[in-house]
Amino acid sequence: MQRDTRVGVDVGGTFTDLVTVGDDRVRVDKVPSTPDAPETGVLDGLAGLSVDTERIGFLGHGTTVATNAVLEGTWADTALVTTAGFRDAVEIGRQTRPDIYDFRASKPEPVVPRDRRHEVPERIDERGSVLEALDESAVRALAQDLAAAETDAVAVAFLFAFENPSHERRVRELLREEGVTAAVSLSSDVLPEIREYERSVTTALNAGLVPVVDDYVAAVADGIDRLGVAAPLRLMGSDGGLVTAATARERPVETLLSGPAAGVRGAAHVAGEAGSPPGGTATAESTRGYDDLLTMDVGGTSCDVSLVRDGEPLVSTETSVGDYPVAVPSVDVHTVGAGGGSVARVDDGGALRVGPDSAGADPGPVCYGRGGTEPTVTDAHFLLGRIDPGAFLGDDVAADREAVRAAFEPLAEELGRSVRGVAEGVLAVADAETERALRVVSVERGHDPRELALVAYGGAGPLHATAVADRLDVPTVIVPRAAGVLSALGLLVADVTTDRSASMVRPLTAVDADRLRETFARLESEGRDRLAGAERATEDVRIERSLDLRYEGQSFELQVPAPDPAETAPAAFRETVRERFHERHRQRYGHAESGEPVELVTVRLRARGVVEPPTLSPGDRAATVGDAVRGSRSVVFDGTDRETTVYDRERLPVGGEFDGPAVVAGGESTLVVHPGQTARVDDRGNLVVAVDGGVSA
After folding, report:
1. What confidence tens digit (pLDDT) does each residue in 578-600 have?
2. What SS3 state is found at 544?
């Protein structure tokens, strides 16, 4: 049987989204998520597909299992083995505070309680030389205690193990010899980089997550096998690439930002395939594609924003999940509490605020008619005529306008404004929050929003995108065809990737060329070995090298691309990466110190197993824009009621153009086109909006 169907499954808090691509057609399905047993929702969704499961040749999965375990503190019972004298490093942490002026701020609970943190005599210096041999008798005695306690997981994090992993590896051998069956994670495997606190916390979290994620992946794998799915299971990694099930079970910490990463990956793909805005030629290859963009994912409780440059999401190693730093490469996502379900309120200073409290999915906004009583961003859209809840929640929804007005009246009375004025204010505050978040990932990092496009997705993203773009002077907004389920689509277009790293802290001029070549060669070999176990439709493997550099004396570094040292003379290599660092520093901070010595911190390599993305057709469409009109209604723009055309998203024809004001209603999201803006349907079914005249792609 031909295995020609691709399926992406993304698990959210309320729904599990499934996107199926076969015969160049896209189908979207949603089933209720099952938080207590998330694999049940995944398997229910797959079982309910209208395609033969035996035809599934590609299965990508985005999961929040690891994320939820960290946020809820439900990882496995974990022990930490560390260098004598450094037992409390994971509790002391950094001197930074969440709020610099809050002197009463408390530190988070340590990942591993003090009574489960164990010291053993050993010491390696910053160049990898052994100063004190590992005390194997102490390790054996500890191993016997751990075996007797039936510890679920063990993390091993020694000083400077990234320079010399021999002691950590020997500890693992001794633990096994003494009968310890728990999952063992070594810092030299999980995160072979400097910064003891971050390395220890990340390794401990990985160890504690192994039993949790291993059980989950096993349950999903067994379930899809029973359903007759022969495709290998791949999971979205935090860096925006897919990882094999085996990698996810061994290094679950790499899946902590699985959901947001899939959305950004999908946004980058859609933008790269998008046609020109109104005024361009949608099918001309010379005008197709946006490589530099902002992404904006607005769901029920929050808004996630990110930056894509040259078609690739920006990746950071300075990520936190909950209270804990997780220093593995992750898509750089900035989150604010401004989602569709965010509750509006008046703060102690008399100012209108939105979030972070949310009405959630149950009961949800008042306009859903499910018992909600607090005014939300979605309710404000409803009062201003921008959405019809029945269009996406079903005909059984009885949106009660008077109930929504009643929810806003206390705010109106407290602020001395009309109900409609408060609703407009709520949207303005939500837009301002999103604008500030987008400025963090663009302006504050040296990128001009006027040179970028904005991709809006999530259930509420398209409602806000055109207004936010106008505030930022972003010329073009792209709303993907499957905007409400873009994370699931992103699973179908992501490559299989693996990131490898090794810290080598020394002046750039003192880096030994032979050792650098050997390090890159070792990392490449490790990366290719991991990809060799991933069944792929193409054997195309691409290697991307980079270095983390800083000026001597700085505390933090910047990542710059590096040439292959095996094909570049040492002097030319150093000069190339030095100039790239100066330029990156100038872009990020506005200046560069060309005369200052540069220091190497970490060597990085990404091995990318290229996955051929599916071709997405726009589906059956109406003949003209007029045929896609559902009707019209009064919508408030800038305090004025405007009679506004409402279009059916799925019926708008390819190449069709229309002017604002307009509302485009789809199955998962609604786009608002403001007066003075123009929208066009490209030949992939995306909506491309010229915010202020637009620019060619």
Report:
1. 999 999 999 888 899 988 999 99
2. strand
Phi, psi of 280 (to 5 degrees): -100, -175
What is the rounded CA–CA span in Å between residue 76 and residue 46? 29
Cα separation, 151 vs 118, whole angstroms: 13
* Other CB atoms within 10 A of residue 517 CB: 17
CA distance 465 to 450: 15
Condensed to tens digits (0 to 9), the pLDDT of residues 113-149 reads: 999 999 999 999 999 999 999 999 999 999 999 999 9
CB count within 10 Å of CB 184 equals 22
d(CA 236, CA 265): 10
Q: Tell me, what DSSP letter sits at residue 623?
A: S
Find residue 681's DSSP bridge partners: 687
In this structure, the dihedral spanned by the alpha carbons of residues 405, 411, 416 and 421, taken in order and rounded to 10 degrees, is -50
Element (H, E) at 648: strand 640-648
Which pairing describes strands 117-120 and 78-83: parallel, antiparallel, or unpaired?
Answer: parallel
DSSP 517: H
- How many secondary structure helices (H) and strands (E) does the chain include? 17, 35
Q: Is the preceding peptide bond at 363 cis, omega within 30 degrees of 0? A: yes
Find out whether 296 and 322 touch, Cβ atoms under 8 Å: no
455 in Cβ contact with 296 (< 8 Å): yes
Q: Which amino acid is it at 364? A: G
What residue ranges of the chain have pLDDT lower than 50? 281-287, 396, 537, 693-697
- Pairing mode, strands 678-681 and 657-659: antiparallel
Q: CB of 387 within 8 A of CB of 378?
A: yes
Instruction: Judge whether 273 and 481 are in contact, CB under 8 Å.
Output: no
E-assigned strand segments in 434-571:
453-457, 476-479, 496-507, 541-551, 558-561
Burial of 148 (0-12, 13-18, 19+ CB in 10 A): exposed
Residue 273: per-residue pLDDT: 86
The gap from C-alpha 118 to its chain's centroid, in whole angstroms, comes to: 34
In terms of phi and psi (left: phi > 0; alpha: psi -120 to 50; beta: otherwise), the region of 416 is: left
